[in-house]
Amino acid sequence: MGRRLKLAAQVLAVALVAGLFGLLGWKVTHQGGGAELVKKASEGKKPVAPDFRLARLDGGGHLDLKSFRNKVVLVNFWASWCDPCKREMPRLEQAYRRYRDRGVVFLGVDAQDFDSSAKREVLKVGTSYPVVYDGAGKVLGRYGGLPLPRTFVIDRRGRLVDFQLGELEQADINRLVDGALRPA
Prior knowledge:
By secondary structure, the chain is an alpha/beta fold. It contains six helices and seven strands; from the N terminus they run ααβββαβαβαββα. The protein is 45% helix and 20% strand.
């Protein structure tokens, strides 16, 4: 009887852990109306980008998205455990150096991650644009949740004008930013 009880306890534990992971996944992808935001943007409706205030990963205080009004902002959600995110980071850095003198801000948002791992990745790549930390993924949820990477472009009036889910190639970055720089 002891063997059956042990097996039943193991099955129950596995089921409990699987249920908790499922609940976490559902919460991340459904919190904050992010799916509706992505839907509106994909329909070309240009919704107002949800504002957020997050701590800088380098420990230099906090950044508010609204502080970048009157600038085009590329917001890239990423994590150190995400291989496509790590592959696109050098491309983002290169593009940031090319666009920063044209009133464009790049903002990295590390989400669903450990800050120590994210800091190592930022140092490894040599990222010079600001990166903020959204450890629990609350802001990520407002922008549609997982999967990562996901990138949004916000115009000078604070409206979400374009986005891409998945890894960015250099041509994707150029298309997103150049499109937002064109007069409306």
